Amino acid sequence: MSAVDVPVALLGYGTVGSAVDRLLAENAEDIERATGHRLRVVHALVRDPEKERPHRPPAGVLTTDFAAIREDPSVALVAEVMGGIEPTGGYVLDLLRAGKPVVSANKQLIAREGAELFRTASEAGVQLRFEASVCAAIPVIKILREALVATNVHRVLGIVNGTTNFILTKMEEGAEYFEALAEAKRLGYAEADPTEDVNGADAAAKMAILATIAFGSRVTLADVAYDGIEAVTGAHVAAAREMEMVVRLIGAATLVDGKLDVRVGPALVDRHHPLAAVEGAMNAVMLQGDAIREITLEGPGAGGMETASAVVADMVSVIGTTGTGFLQNDACWRELPRLPPEEARSPYYVRIDVDDRAGVLAHVALRLAEQDVSIARLIQHQANGEAALHIVTHEASTGHLQAALGAIAGLPETRGAPSALPVVSDRGVPGLGWA
Ligand code: NAP
Ligand code: HSE
Fold this sequence. Notes:
Blueprint: E1 4-11, H1 15-26, H2 28-35, E2 37-45, E3 62-63, H3 66-71, E4 77-80, H4 88-97, E5 102-104, H5 107-124, E6 128-129, H6 140-147, E7 153-159, H7 162-172, H8 177-186, H9 195-198, H10 201-215, E8 225-226, H11 234-242, E9 245-256, E10 259-270, E11 282-289, E12 293-300, H12 304-320, E13 345-346, E14 348-355, H13 360-370, E15 375-383, E16 386-393, E17 396-397, H14 398-409, E18 414-424
Parallel strand pairs: 1-2, 1-4, 2-3, 4-5, 5-6, 8-10, 10-18
Antiparallel strand pairs: 7-9, 7-11, 9-10, 11-12, 13-17, 14-16, 14-18, 15-16
Bound molecules: NADP nicotinamide-adenine-dinucleotide phosphate (NAP) and L-homoserine (HSE).
The site of NADP nicotinamide-adenine-dinucleotide phosphate has 28 residues, from α1.
């Protein structure tokens, strides 16, 4: 029996778009055997069709004319792999309104404009899928939306940006920050503008999407407190190593007494923690819930072919599901309040530079004790009459820690401003101790 011919279009033919075309062509027979359909790229929107490309589609496929794609009645679905918010968002809305299902790899678009996009898809009765927007090859969206639909997920913890994890791993091996970033760009891991990778915005968008699905309440990029790795230095990496930890960019989405807390930032991760073993451009997501206790998914988090595998899987799912199945519906069904930032709790790594003389440690310890911040570990380095205190605290509220650091900064023997990073040292689920 001959396969059903399915003409498809791509918005974008860069790292991901060209890999989608290759994957569809190279695996056409496997897809046909499994689904009875043959997906064929007939248009790919680009800015410059004449540009040198490592992989070129047949003549006539590359176009700069978006309307030609929207108006082509033969195009059964479109993969948006061009990135950016505008004109991309307008194109996706136009396609949905024209009745064309869309698959997107664009985490910024989904995290910022998700409400309007899903409403439009629903009104038009077409599917909008976005597996590739989070953690590239890891099918975490499908697992959260389908496999864990009956599970009360209350925490998502992970490493969700490949570029920064690659840079931090390279820094552990002795590479310089900018040298490692350049390599991540060359390997196709980084965004077109890598600012969003290194400042945490890329990971924040992914955590907003994961939190939205996990908790069924809309979380946009604006709801995520995020920080990147720009301020992480070789000294942080060395201090972490000395305390048997590694520095990682950690995303955490937590339900605390029915309140949402979603954040991204650099943290010290204990060497024995599963996330410490995630290296290079790999990502990992730990899903914690009542019935499942904990499920960890790990896999390639960036790269053309890695991302294309998720795009193609979504395309096949769209073709393979008819009508308006539940997967295209908006995942949100409630509104949750936000946890005040000062109420978030974590163990912390704190660095304080002080004069090296009698009583100073007692003054520092007293300021911590006054705010109910308890010391778990302490290392001191001395040189030239100065001491650097490296302290790891037990779990403390962020507000209390900041108050203690404020008081310590005001001590006459404190030199410069104390700094703090959260520490990831357990999984936050009773009975799941790893030590
Ligand atoms: P890319 O290599 O920069 O490719 C972007 C493509 O879109 C290019 O073909 C470009 O055309 C085209 N394009 C951009 N703006 C356009 C416009 N205004 N009009 C027409 N065409 C336009 O980017 P990428 O790495 O493939 O990423 C694409 C998307 O996938 C982004 O949303 C990204 O966040 C997401 N993603 C990427 C990865 C990854 O590892 N790279 C992983 C997961 C998700 P030209 O070729 O003519 O410049
Ligand atoms: N730039 C992103 C990263 C691509 O490094 O994780 C995957 O979304």
